[in-house]
Write a structure and sequence with these properties.
Order of helices and strands: HHEHEEHEEEHEEEHEHEHHHEHHEHH
Shape: globular
């Protein structure tokens, strides 16, 4: 690719090809697919929240099939230990310690039902998500790049679950909420899944191409007013701040941190590229604001008592 303009056009074309391949298996969920692919190109992690049976796991496995990347799935359970994720040292026949890598050593890691495991095990993911490495017995092991954690969570069953701590939630670029399919989509799903038809998903992108696109996203130029809009939006959410919005002061306990501002700008750049534009505008920031801010705002007692959701507060701030 000679220049960034050609690379941007190629990214938009590859994005459409990915959508077509994923669409062979996944019916609807267009917004969810867009956000997960945005996270892939923007080098972020994604948390998918939805009731059982909405194909969260199938969606992530299909995306893994369409990307030429190594893929591991970890089913989180209450008895899962940190060593079950990162790996452990074992004693060989030569009486030497050898590190056996855990499932975290893959390009794409599906953390299924992440809130089913205690905080100690959830914390094993923290270092890998932020530092792209794990430390075992004082030895640091880097992870292969690109590296993404796509986690799923079930919002209904609260028994036997361990809510993710704020520090870990903050490391997810997007919190994506999955809704029920429409009547027409569900008809399609039932027809596709109850017939004797196998859909094969073709590989669209390699690891090297994804890394090249991630670097391209970082190089996208952004106008000052777009960055100012993103930072101003985050400042509006901080009830104790001098730029706080009146609604935030009334309804929020805590606002979003600086990582939200960074993610807003990077995700807006990526959103512009996959939409066929070469630079983001304020609309691109608004398009990614909800899933970025949703898990970073903490409502106060007044908001909870009045039944005001985080989504309603964010829409008012936009």
């Amino acid at each position: 690719m000679q220049n960034d303009k050609e690379a941007a056009d190629a990214l938009a074309a590859h994005y459409q090809a990915l959508r077509r391949e994923i669409g062979k298996v996944i019916v609807g969920q267009d917004e969810v697919v867009r956000l997960v692919l945005t996270a892939v190109f923007a080098q972020g992690h994604c948390l998918l929240v939805g009731v059982p049976g909405l194909a969260k796991t199938l969606l992530i496995q299909t995306i893994a099939d369409a990307l030429d990347l190594s893929f591991n799935r970890i089913q989180f359970t209450p008895d899962l230990m940190p060593s079950d994720i990162v790996g452990s040292e074992t004693l060989t026949q030569q009486r030497e310690f050898q590190f056996v890598k855990g499932p975290i050593f893959a390009n794409l890691v599906l953390a299924d039902e992440i809130n089913r495991t205690p905080p100690k095990t959830q914390a094993a993911l923290l270092e890998s998500m932020q530092e792209y490495a794990v430390t075992v017995a004082g030895q640091r092991y880097p992870l292969a790049r690109p590296f993404f954690v796509l986690a799923t969570q079930n919002p209904i069953e609260q028994e036997g679950t361990y809510p993710l701590p704020e520090a870990q939630l903050d490391r997810f670029m997007f919190n994506v909420q999955l809704g029920y399919p429409s009547y027409a989509e569900e008809l399609n799903i039932v027809k596709n899944t109850t017939a004797d038809r196998q859909h094969t998903v073709s590989k669209v992108l390699t690891a090297a191409e994804i890394q090249a696109y991630q670097a391209l996203v970082r190089r996208v130029p952004v106008a000052d007013n777009v960055v100012e809009y993103a930072v101003s939006l985050v400042h509006k959410t901080r009830p104790q701040g001098e730029r706080a919005a009146p609604r935030a002061q009334q309804l929020l306990e805590w606002g979003a941190g600086p990582r939200a501002s960074q993610y807003l700008v990077v995700a807006a750049k990526c959103n512009a590229l996959i939409s066929g534009k070469y630079s983001p505008d304020i609309e691109d920031v608004r398009a990614v604001a909800l899933p970025i801010l949703r898990h970073r705002l903490v409502r106060n007692f007044k908001a909870e008592a009045e039944g005001v959701t985080v989504e309603q507060i964010i829409k008012e701030l936009l």
